[in-house]
Every structure is written in structure tokens, then in C-alpha cells.
Amino acid sequence: MMTCIQQDVLSNYDPMTEEQNMKTSPKQTIVSSGCIHVGALTSGVCTALEVLDLTMGCISTSMLVYLGIAITPYQNKQTVSKVKSAWEECSQALVESMDVMHRKEMARIQRRIMDGVAPYTRHAKTEKERVEGLMRLCDDCQLVVHSTLYALCQDRRIGMNY
After folding, report:
1. Which is it for the CA torsion 41, 47, 52, 54, positive or negative?
2. Measured between alpha carbons, how far is 59 from 17 in angstroms, rounded to an integer?
């Protein structure tokens, strides 16, 4: 019993596209890093052939080598971040969907329980009202008995004084 949201989330997940994205990112990283290293190699050759000044050539070659080395972890981190955010979105949508489904199911179960015990609660309510009526009647009787006793006591006191 899947909801529309669950079906939508799961239908948007394409394993082939995911696999292709996971293959493309490392390829792009390798190509980018390789191009930068080719630039570093070119800079080093130009420096060796004295086309570039020695100081500038060493600085540019060093910078390009470090950039080529640093690009791999940077792009790997970005790839991991993209995959993680995509999975978190999917997970969040599924959790929300499951929460909605859970609330609906709990309401349905509660309704069934209440419908099942309704005859007993009606009977208990009726009996409670009947008992409360009897209690009021007893209270009224007790009040009458007390007032009668009080009146008798008053009559005896009056009668004794005569």
C-alpha cells in the first residue's frame, strides 16, 4: 500500500542515471586534473627551454601541480555532497510520506476501536445516568429524612416545655 508520494519518489529514482552520474564525475575529475598537469608540464618545459623566466616558470609549474593535485579531493567532495543531498531529499520525502500514512492508519484504527466499543460506552453512559439519578433520589430522601427528624426533635422540645 504505497502512497502517491512514495510512488513518485521511487519512480524518480533511476539506477542507470545514478550509475552514469557516478561514472561521469570521476571521469571529469581525471580529465580536469590531467589538463592542469599538462599545463604544469608545459610550463616546466617552457621554463627548461628558457622561454619563461626561471622564477615565474617554477612558480607557475608548482601552482599548476598543486592545483592538479587539489582538484581531485575537491571534486570528490562535491560528488559526495550531491549524492548525499539527493539521498537526503529522497529519504525526507519517504519519511514524510510514511508519517502521513502512519497518521491515517492510526486514525482508522482508532475509529474502528471506537466503533467497536460504542455499544458498551452507550450502555455504560446509560447506566451512569441511571446511577446518578438514583444518587440524586437518595440525596433527596436523605434530605427529607433529616428535615423530618429535625422537625420531630423540635416538636418534642416544644412539647416538653408545656
Report:
1. positive
2. 41
* The three cell numbers locating residue 95: 519519511
Q: What is the pLDDT of residues 76-131, one digit of tens each?
A: 888 888 888 888 888 888 888 889 889 999 999 999 999 998 888 888 999 999 99
DSSP 52: S
Distance from C-alpha of 86 to C-alpha of 14, rounded to nearest angstrom:
12
- Report pTM: 0.48
How far apart (Å, rounded) are the C-alpha atoms in residues 97 and 94?
Answer: 5
In the three-class reduction of DSSP (H, G, I as helix; E, B as strand; rest coil), residue 131 is classed as: helix
| Cα–Cα distance, 65 to 67 (Å, whole number) | 5
71 CB neighbour count, 10 Å cutoff: 19
DSSP state of 62: H
**Residues contacting residue 72 through CB under 8 Å, at least 6 positions apart:** 29, 33
Q: Count CB-CB contacts under 10 A for residue 52.
A: 19
For range 52-56, the mean pLDDT: 84
The distance of Cα 78 from the centroid of its chain, to the nearest Å, equals 25
